[in-house]
């Protein structure tokens, strides 16, 4: 099998609804795949268009003790968040085959999230009720997630040199008092912030740089988050190498014009 780069061809499938940009995630069925193609190759093709969250090749069982599963030539791809542009208008060719790409609204992650891009994350403390003092601020690729199913708040961010992706997680039940919100319309763009105090420090993960699939049929971003505990060595989380467990109060600031069209 010759390993060629995918190139634009001329086959289209079922397209997403016109409001796809408002989705938190979007999934596709991909068919006419060569049966020897691995999930890493499939993920690599689609990762050029956006953030692939999950890739799965559909298999069938065969009478072979060493390789009991075989690809059926069909895969499912889940993007989270949605890609920046509609690549499905440009059919792809991989290893000599034209890929058929069909939108699927039933291929979704197991949890229901609400997701919003954020302008910044600040960590600090209250010196008086509702008077927050920021001690660390992050502005690179900050994302805010609410999971009502698991009753959690999750914040992702990038920091460091080289750049690492971190994930902080807070439980609804650990929030102290009310969530404090502020609105600032004094500038050219409207900004809003929420400040949350917690009983316990956030749980923290770092995204593993070496993302290899656990087998040739399945790949998922959740498999590559490494939990950081108190005694673990970790990439620098802050310029003074402070650990996230130092802080119990965090503030998220949003550009309201940027998220106004999201649900």
From TrEMBL:
Any GO MF annotation of the entry: nucleic acid binding
Protein name: RRM domain-containing protein
Species this protein is from: Rhizophagus irregularis
């Amino acid at each position: 099998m010759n390993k060629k780069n995918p190139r634009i061809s001329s086959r289209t499938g079922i397209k997403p609804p016109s409001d796809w940009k408002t989705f938190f995630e979007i999934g596709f069925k991909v068919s006419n795949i060569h049966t020897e193609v691995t999930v890493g190759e499939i993920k690599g093709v689609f990762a050029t268009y956006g953030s692939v969250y999950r890739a799965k090749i559909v298999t069938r069982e065969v009478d072979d003790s060493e390789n009991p599963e075989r690809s059926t030539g069909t895969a499912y791809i889940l993007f989270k968040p949605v890609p920046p542009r509609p690549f499905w208008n440009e059919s792809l060719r991989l290893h000599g085959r034209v890929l058929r790409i069909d939108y699927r609204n039933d291929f979704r992650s197991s949890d229901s999230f609400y997701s919003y891009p954020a302008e910044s994350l600040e960590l600090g403390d209250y010196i008086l009720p509702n008077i927050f003092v920021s001690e660390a601020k992050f502005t690179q690729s900050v994302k805010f997630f609410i999971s009502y199913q698991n009753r959690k708040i999750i914040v992702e961010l990038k920091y460091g040199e080289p750049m690492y992706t971190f994930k902080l997680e807070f439980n609804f039940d650990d929030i102290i008092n009310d969530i404090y919100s502020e609105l600032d319309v004094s500038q050219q763009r409207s900004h809003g912030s929420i400040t949350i105090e917690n009983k316990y420090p956030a749980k923290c993960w770092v995204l593993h740089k070496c993302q290899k699939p656990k087998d040739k049929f399945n790949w998922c971003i959740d498999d590559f988050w490494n939990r950081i505990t108190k005694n673990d060595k970790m990439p620098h989380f802050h310029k003074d190498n402070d650990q996230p467990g130092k802080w119990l109060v965090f503030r998220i600031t949003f550009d309201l014009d940027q998220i106004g069209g999201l649900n």
